[in-house]
Amino acid sequence: MDDYPRAFTLRARPLVVFSGLPEVEEDASIPATLQNGTVIETRGTGLEGPYGVSFRDKLLSFNVSDSSINERDQARDLADALYFYKSDKSEVLTESTFSTLTTYRKLTDDSIMEFAVVLVGDMSTTVAPDLDERLAAIRRAVKLDGKTFFYIPADFSPEELGSMAETILSALRPACLDFYRDMTKQVRRKKDRGSTPSSPVPEEAQHLIIPKSGWTARYEYKLGFFAEMRSEMDAASRHYNAALDALFDIRGVFDTVSNWSPHWNAARLFADAIAVHQLRCSLANGLPTETSRFFLRYHDIVQQLLDSKGKGTNNYGWQAWQARWAQIMAHLIAESPAHTVDINTRKAIETLFRSKGGLYASMERSAGTDEPFNPWDLLHHPGYWLVLSSSYVKARRRHALEMPEGDRTPPGQSPSSKVARRYEIYDTYLVPEPHEEWPLEADGIDYTSQIVNCLQEATNEFVHRGQPSMASRVRLFTARELAYAGRWPAALELTKSLWPGHKWRRSGWWNGVGEVALILHRSAKACDDRSSEIKALWELMSGRFKVHEDVNYELMSLMKSMSGPERSATNEGNIILRHEDIVSFLNISFAFVTDESNAGETIQAQITLTSTAHPKSQAVVFDKLKIELDGEVRSIELENTVDAAQSGSDEGSTHLSNIDLSGAGATLSGAAVLSVAPGETKVFTMSIDLHEAGSIRAVRAFATIETETVKLEYSQTLQAYKALTYWWTPATEAPRQRLAYHRPDTIRVQPKLPKVIVSFTERASTYYTDEHLTLDVDIINHEHEDILLTLEIRMPGHENQVLEIHGMENAATTDSPSQRAGDLTYKLGTMAAAAAQKISMSTKLPSIPGNMPFEVKAIYHLVSKPDSPLTKTSSTTINVQPAFDIDHSIRPDLHPSTWPSFFTAPITQASNSSNDSNEGIINRWTVTSSLLSLASERLIIEKAELSITSVSEGAHCTVLEASAEGTITLPPKTQHDLNFTLDTTRLLLDDLRTITVDGSLIIHWCRQDSTTQIVTTIPAPTFRLPASEPRALMSLSSPSTENPSETTSSATAPSSTLTLHLTLENPSLHFLTFQCSLDPNENFAFSGPKVTTIHLVPMSRCVVKYALLPFAKGGRLKPVIRVVDVHFDKALIVHAVGKGVERDEAGLRVDSEM
User: Looking at residues 1120-1147, what average pLDDT do you find?
Assistant: First the structure.
């Protein structure tokens, strides 16, 4: 990078900038002009003094909202061109100032350059009153006006300095634009004439003549540059592309110049300068994808040119060119947001970079979709380019190391034939000659510094953009390079900051972790840092990493080497290693045999040490092993019983041993062999006594190695739930079993278990409602001594239930044996060890099915420990089921009594009659109760009766057959019908309201194997009996009392015929007319009216008789009889009454054998 001109890499300024003159006049170097017109750049001491430096900083940070690229570049040029004149307080402006400015004025008069003066002095008008006159004299002497001559006094504030900087740039900008426009016109005229210089050229210099394409490239470059200075980036980009096309044309400069000519390298330098300008223009236009693609195209063009006409690309010169260009790209991208992009485009590029996390800029819309898109077409941030540059520097070093020794000797010490061969093979474009690149006896190029500098800059870029993983990886590359160069202190410092707690371990990138540990180990060994060497060796011993021949894996030997007197003074201290921060070869686990136990019991636990070290490693002997716990037991400490010389562990084997722990309180200690060989597993089994309730959890394990001057402590968090945990046994077939519970490193210690047993004994498997229940409770004392016992009996949710307790005759209590089941307390007193007692509880189960809970709590304490009460609670739930399921139905029936006559009824006296007399019509009803057994065994029903509980007002109800006499055996899941007869009547004859009747069915029953009678009362639904609706009743026999006036006569029927009686009742106060009809049937013949009309007066009934003669004996007849209320046009339902007549969904059925 240093081989390029500064103007090319920063702002690519071809014009000369004067930095200022030194204070000593005779040491100043005045710019000189060569014969070819090139102005040589000279620099002086620069600015001095607080005011000059402050003003220069203002110019460098110039960033006006409406400023363009070139305004900021001009501000930087102005800052570089400042000349600060320092004078004593006694002098104001001496004659040396006049002479210096006059010299610069004469220089610009002979050229096309503009001249302006900015004086920054520490004098002000208050100190030197004649300062204004002196400045006016200087301005007139150098022939300047107020737009080109400025003075900044010493008393300017920082805000005034910034305002002055804007004023100066605003005044100079028009002149700069006019200058670049004039230069553009001049170059375009020369290009249009198409003429080249006609000066004679000696014959021996004919090969140096520039071809026409070279002049074209030159003119296009100048036009592009002047357009760039005017902020016309699109025009500048077109001119730069045309210049490159002219250079790389088939008949261009590279086609006419040999690769050994100096003009070849000059043309390459010219092409590189144009490419830099083109990249700046693309970035200024906000085209990051075009910038990346242009660089790739230019790279391929140059590579193809060198392979076809140059010296090839298999040399260190080509790698140096690639490394340099990667750095140029990084610098251009880094400069573009702040310097080479105008304010609007700069904001757009910054937004694009931020939108992708600062990694790369998104593709612009103008990028065509015709070309295939590649990931490298996206312009990435400078960090990636710097890493790429470091890789090219490494390739350059590799090519340099491959050079033969004959090419590395100076030309004066080598034969001329070998020297000539060098110029044919090696490309020395902007790089030293082979004997300077990698000399035999002296130091050549410092590749390591170049690589490290690139990687460090890249690291800063990655960190700044939130890429810690990539930054760590680049730091690894840096450490690798430092270790390669043998710069061990720097490598040690870098790897010490990179090694601990790196997330590569969590991500499982073992190659990177192993390399960092290896570099740390080698650096620490070279720098005699034993502590870091041991830390790195501990990690390198893990089997995850490959074995290195130069690493001594004997950890114990390295620990002992720190105990010598020569190291004891400098290596004292402790070495702390955490399993979470490193990859360890040692794994420690702790597990309980079960996840739950009780106080007063002994639990087994195991400590497992597993080594995954390399087979080449030495057995490690620990002096102490400590398990830190949280709970009743605070720690378990094991001391080593053998030294390292006596340890005889077998590699790859498993050893189990039982450890006897001693100690009281929170710390338990024991002794064991704490040596672990590579691949060996040590299992220590121990017993722990539990005294208190709570939980015990293994927190952390500590393994310690101690020498005379150093102590190594390795700690590991015991989180067994994150890995597989096994329980080891001495069995040969299955030596280990995986513990299935979630946290093998934790045990829950429950309170001491009571040893008093309280159990229930039920006398039946199923219980039904209204049944008497008896539960037996057995109490057994399994404690090793006598106890003082108290019983509490409860029925939760049934506190009002009456409960009888038997077997508590000797208990000290004020409660009676039969009482409400609240909290019943009985003090049984002393109960001997191994003694037993039985009590019984009796209660009547409720009529509603459900669950009946019983709870007996035994509260006791040992006679020897009266302050430690124990509780044993036992409960049971009795499921109370219903024994029966009943379905009730009611249908009309025929009352045998004669109805009162409408003409003789005392209707007028009804309102004056007494409420106790029944003047209404009596209606008979039949109630059928279908009784379904829900029991799982046979039930004996001794009696069932229907009880009327309430009747509506103004009515009377009588149950004629109140009970079904006789014993009924009801098998499980069977049904039995019970029939009951009701007579209802109104107290008043004209009271026609519906009668409502409520009742319940009372069943007296018992189990088949029991004589205890149970009474179950099941409420019946409310019966709503209409009192004013007409009824049609069908029976096989006439009523016992028959009114001839109400009966329609029929012919005398034979004895084999069936007589049907159709009774029509009109209990209302209306005259009703009914139409009756009997359809003919193929199964019988009948005698009687086929269709008839009957008129019924209020409070009357009529009987229509039909004689049926069946055609066949047996079977059931299905007469179709219709009764229609003519006035309301409503069909009445003909109800079956008495025996021999039934009604179902299909209609009436008559038994022909009746």
Answer: 86
